[in-house]
Design a protein that fits this description.
This protein is mostly helical. The longest helix has about 40 residues. The chain is globular and about 90 Å long.
């Protein structure tokens, strides 16, 4: 076990406090810079974990202490693609925790004490992350002494991903903290072998388990460390008190499960989906249902796997692995995930590190994980020469890497390991320094030291190459475009919440960013970004500010930018732009029904948009990017046929065409179901029974689509009307 156990001197304490204070200043400085440069409240973004945790915590704060209305995954965009509500009710009976409960309860406590302002949780997480630096200092001091502790603490202090994730309602800062706390208590327990220390280790283990199920690996880790350290005789006694401590911490969650009717030991529902997403044959194991293989993963792998195995992790594993053609296919996937784990690129997930790094200078100046990963691998190899001493650190790294790779890899999932890699990095640097000094001395071990030094240098250089980002960071223009899109999404969310002043502020900010993209220097992406930015600007003028003249001018400019040609991108852009023009004329007609010319113009523009979609289909280049707007255009045409033309048959044809292009398109499902039900009010039984039944079926499909159309109340009203008509025409009671 670690041998550097001298008590802290006053100088050590000053260094510890200095490192913690510096880490806090860096994190608060980033948050201030982020608010000034970006300032997006990700808690309002739909279908991401930040919103989930915020809503869950608010419910707890407002009185749902048992999380009886706990957020469940059945209303995510991806769950609606997999199965209907009845199937989800079968898979997820009771009120299971959607994700591990510690984090949302911590947020709820912070909201209760400090209020629910936008800066509350980031500030708390900055403090927690700074405390993690302090705990790492203590841990590294026990293994490496003062110099190693300072170096490890500084590496984590300036690690840009560690700084970045403090801003958002994600668990990275919490996982860093509980991980290094566990290792510090493990080191203490192994050194003193006292019952109370193993009980304290159990408390930390239970806390970690409530933070994320991946911390189940700490229990086999404790067993292995006891065995390696030659303390197997105390194994049963030590583990008994570890288990007791873990049960004490986890028992409130178990009692809660029993009270609400959930499986007693269930702490999350994400296991099956995570394993399918990261291990099915269509997966690359590094994104959450990636767009390029989403259809195959969701409509193929996930549906068939869950249909066969149900929503339980263990049965899902063999069925998921069975989607591969052979062992070689799965080994290639594991290799891809391993290289992604040991790669400095932060795969965007919920939040976008590469874009933020471009936009926020402070984050750009901080080193990314490249150096910690490279030096950490070198330190890992160096630690193998002192296997017994460093066994807790080495095994912790191996087990966490293995479990993450076994499911799927995202940059922030490395958070529990990042402090440990900083410690190993410090060890690697100190080892190199000692070896270099030893090579220059006349000593019997000079050749051995030179050989080890050469080997570690090769490991460092090779690992530095391995962890170099596989994907380049976005250009400044791309970063501004992505940011503008996110800002406008926050504006739309503000509209839904009737926060008109904030919405206007967000949209004006997004317009400025889109304009900066248009004026930005040339780069390979710029022509495409210019078209996309100008299109988004036109949409904002049309939908938000109702400035029809500026919107029309911009859409005409976009058409001029697109030019001629029959490439997929060109046809897609024309479909979208002509559809936007048609919508402009339709909206203007709806505002002023005397402008019949606008209704005619809308019809012409929609027909043009549809023709370019049809052309893409003729050329065999209709992918999802063009399929979606083309299906949308046919729904828009159907709407025009209904009003002002009152041509129900033509509308029905357009809805049917929309479904032929995109079979699960929500707008068409809803529109066709609505037509069939409303038409049935004034027709005979023979004419309407089949259409009423089909209309109800289509409305049911529409309610499960992503996203469902209109408001739930309107949809429910149509369903109620259809059932009433069907019962009345059948002579039954409503």
């Amino acid at each position: 076990m670690s041998t550097t156990r001298s008590s802290f001197s006053r100088l050590d304490i000053l260094w510890l406090l200095g490192c913690v204070l510096l880490a806090l200043v860096v994190r608060l400085g980033f948050q201030s810079s982020y608010g000034h440069r970006i300032g997006i409240d990700t808690r309002v973004q739909a279908d991401i974990d930040t919103r989930t945790f915020d809503l869950w915590a608010r419910a707890i704060k407002d009185g749902d202490l048992l999380s009886e209305n706990s957020y469940t995954p059945t209303d995510h965009w991806w769950t609606r693609r997999i199965a209907d509500s009845d199937e989800w009710a079968r898979w997820l009976p009771g009120t299971k925790f959607h994700q591990s409960p510690l984090y949302p309860y911590c947020i709820a406590l912070a909201y209760w004490i400090l209020g629910d302002g936008e800066a509350v949780i980031p500030t708390c997480q900055a403090l927690l992350s700074a405390l993690s630096v302090g705990l790492l200092f203590l841990l590294a001091h026990r293994y490496l002494g003062l110099v190693g502790a300072i170096l490890a603490a500084l590496l984590l202090t300036f690690c840009s991903p560690s700084v970045f994730y403090t801003e958002f309602l994600l668990r990275a800062s919490l996982l860093e903290f509980v991980g290094v706390l566990f290792l510090l208590l493990l080191d203490r327990a192994m050194a003193l072998m006292r019952t109370r220390d193993f009980f304290g280790l159990g408390l930390a283990s239970g806390l970690a388990l409530l933070a994320k199920p991946v911390f189940l690996v700490v229990f086999p880790l404790i067993v292995l460390v006891l065995w390696i350290q030659g303390k197997g005789k105390a194994l049963i006694r030590s583990l008994s008190f570890v288990a007791l401590g873990a049960v004490v911490v986890c028992s409130p969650a178990f009692v809660r499960n029993a009270l609400v009717g959930a499986p007693v030991f269930s702490l999350t529902t994400r296991g099956p989906a995570a394993f399918i997403n990261g291990n099915a044959s269509a997966s690359d194991g590094t994104e959450w249902f990636p767009e390029r293989t989403r259809t195959e993963l969701l409509d193929g792998n996930a549906k068939s796997i869950l249909g066969e195995a149900g929503w339980s992790t263990l049965p899902v594993v063999p069925v998921t692995l069975g989607t591969h053609e052979g062992v070689g296919s799965y080994i290639r996937l594991l290799f891809l995930k391993t290289t992604a784990f040991w790669n400095a690129y932060e795969i965007p997930n919920n939040v976008d590190f590469p874009v933020t790094r471009v936009m926020v200078p402070l984050l750009r100046w901080l080193p990314d994980l490249r150096w910690i990963l490279a030096l950490g691998l070198m330190g890992f190899v160096a630690a193998l020469f002192q296997w017994k001493k460093f066994s807790p650190i080495l095994l912790y790294t191996i087990l966490f890497c293995g479990v993450t790779v076994a499911f799927f890899v995202v940059g922030r999932f490395r958070a529990p390991v990042t402090p440990v890699l900083a410690l190993l990095s410090a060890h690697g640097v100190l080892t190199l320094v000692r070896l270099i000094r030893g090579v220059g001395q006349e000593a019997s071990g000079r050749k051995r030291n030179a050989l080890i030094l050469s080997g570690l240098t090769v490991v460092f250089l090779a690992s530095l190459f391995l962890v170099w980002p596989r994907m380049a960071e976005p250009s400044l223009a791309r970063a501004k475009y992505d940011l503008a899109w996110r800002v406008s999404e926050e504006g739309r969310e503000s509209i839904r919440k009737n926060e008109g002043e904030k919405a206007r502020e967000m949209f004006e900010k997004s317009l400025l960013l889109y304009n900066e993209v248009l004026l930005s220097p040339h780069d390979p992406e710029h022509p495409r970004l210019k078209i996309a930015s100008h299109s988004q600007t036109g949409r904002i003028y049309l939908e938000t500010f109702e400035d029809y003249n500026n919107a029309e001018r911009i859409f005409r400019e976009v058409l001029a930018m697109i030019g001629d040609g029959e490439a997929m991108e060109t046809l897609r852009d024309k479909v979208n732009t002509y559809a936007s023009l048609g919508t402009l004329y339709r909206v203007r007609f709806e505002r002023d029904p005397t402008r019949m010319g606008d209704a005619a113009r809308a019809l012409v523009e929609y027909q043009r948009a549809a023709s370019f979609g049809e052309r893409a289909e003729e050329l065999g280049i209709m992918n999802e990017d063009i399929r979606q707007p083309t299906a949308w255009v046919h729904c828009l045409l159907a709407g025009l046929e209904l009003h002002p033309n009152n041509d129900w048959e033509a509308a029905e044809r357009h809805y049917a065409r929309s479904l032929a292009i995109k079979p699960q398109y929500a707008g068409a499902l809803y529109g066709l179901g609505r037509i069939w039900i409303l038409q049935s009010r004034d027709r005979s039984l023979d004419e309407t029974r089949e259409k009423l039944e089909n209309g109800l079926l289509y409305l049911e499909k529409a309610s499960r689509a992503d996203p469902p159309p209109d408001s739930p109340e309107v949809l429910a009203g149509l369903v109620a009307l259809g059932k009433s008509l069907l019962a009345g025409k059948s002579g039954g009671d409503d």
